[in-house]
Specification:
The structure is a single chain. The protein contains 5 helices and 6 strands, in the order ββββαβαβααα. The protein is of the alpha/beta class and 173 residues long. It has one domain (2-169): Nucleotidyltransferase, domain 5 (2-Layer Sandwich). The chain has a 6-stranded mixed beta sheet with strand order 1-4-3-2-5-6. Helix 1 (59-75) packs across helix 2 (92-112) and helix 4 (136-145) crosses helix 5. The two termini are 26 Å apart.
């Protein structure tokens, strides 16, 4: 797991503190994540869910479940989860990984009563860059323009999802 950025929520300057902890995810083998904690700090990073040489097929999903539980324990309780909703994958393996991670995420959230919602890829890109089919470089540039230093496009996408959720929904599901 890499931890990359801590940027205060700009609403602090306006005197309004967020009251809920929200998590944004770009699901994949390298999952990008961004969380706005109860302290209003926005922290982002990536977590690698690549299986080890001797791992069984379900280990990536168990590690993801443990990671979610630890994030909730350390920063939560999480009030809402937003994730990138991918409708088309170039490769079969990527589609299988995404489906497994989404199933793991939604089951984890259901067990805890945490609302969750997918956000279409084009919506995220349009909100971040003004262009619904923005490339990875543009998404990273958009995150940098907000004061973050994303390690990759996965983290940049998670940053964009969080900001979309805050700006269009007040951060709640």
């Amino acid at each position: 797991m890499t931890l990359n950025s801590e940027v205060p929520d700009p609403r602090l300057e306006q005197g309004r503190l967020p009251v809920s902890c929200i998590l944004a995810l770009d699901l994949g083998t390298s999952t990008g994540w961004t969380i706005r904690g109860h302290d209003a700090l926005i922290t982002s990073g990536t977590v690698s869910l690549r299986p080890g040489r001797f791992d069984g097929g379900g280990m990536r999903y168990l590690r993801f479940t443990n990671w979610l539980t630890e994030i909730d324990r350390l920063s939560g309780p999480i009030a809402a989860i937003w994730f990138e909703e991918v409708r088309r994958h170039v490769g079969t393996d990527a589609a299988h990984v995404y489906g497994g991670l989404m199933a793991t995420l939604t089951a984890w959230a259901e067990l805890r009563g945490i609302p969750y919602q997918g956000v279409p890829v084009g919506t995220i890109k349009r909100h971040a860059t003004g262009k619904g089919n923005a490339d990875k470089v543009a998404m990273i540039a958009a995150a940098r323009a907000r004061g973050f230093s994303p390690a990759d496009d996965n983290e940049a996408d998670a940053i964009a999802i969080l900001h979309w959720a805050i700006e269009t929904n007040g951060g709640v599901a």
